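Researcher: Re-running this chain for the archive, since the previous output was lost when a drive failed. Same request as before.
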Amino acid sequence: MNAVIVRDMEPEDEYFVATCTHVDESGEIDASSRRRLAWFKEARGRGLRIKVATLNGERVGFIYVMPVEICPWGPLGRDLAVFPCLVAHSKVKGRGVGRALLAAAEEEARNQEKKGLATYGYYHDFWFMPAAYFEKLGFAAAARRGERAILWKAFDPSAEPPTFPEDKCRLEAAPGKVAVDLFYNTFCLTSDVEAQRVRDVADEFGKAVVLREYEAGDLAALRRWGRARGIFVDGEEIFWGYEAPKDGVRKAISEALSRKRKK
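Model: Regenerated structure tokens:
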């Protein structure tokens, strides 16, 4: 059995990472990948590192590692490193890809002299970032909200546990128009694709819609609003888990417009 090899992202890995493994799937994803890659390159100067795993010469996964102070997904903290996502192909499950990527992330965090490593994990029955998996590898819950938890591993006794951003969404109405408030981050493929769909649909309604955008890559916005992702139509959140479908966004705006016209 060949060993998993983990290396720093190289130019030939960029498309694989920027499309979040969705290589050659759609023009929409490719457009998002270009925006994401630009963000990666800018964030590298602020400490972002991306590790890519290969098995038998094939790319099979990757992990982002960055200082908590620049992470657009949260959590909040200081002197810690964060890995917002760990991605590994299901076809290599059980081959140690996740463990190898986490070991590389921990090594990078220590090399950057961080006091610990943190992420978000989930206790629901779903494949994405399962908390139980990280707990088996030495992570512990620093805080929990329902099925979502901040998991971390401290390297230094002086490390301070990370915290959730406080949700402070207090959205203003737009008299005579439908207000669409879009919280997103370019770092995440799902969020970035969703944001572009919301822009496209909002444009269809012209001056009847006021679109307000909040990009969580601006950490001041993340701290002010406590949101890295979200769509609100006249103050009501709409959410699908996956990328918001254009038809769904269009329906929500149309219904809000209809309510206004009946008043």
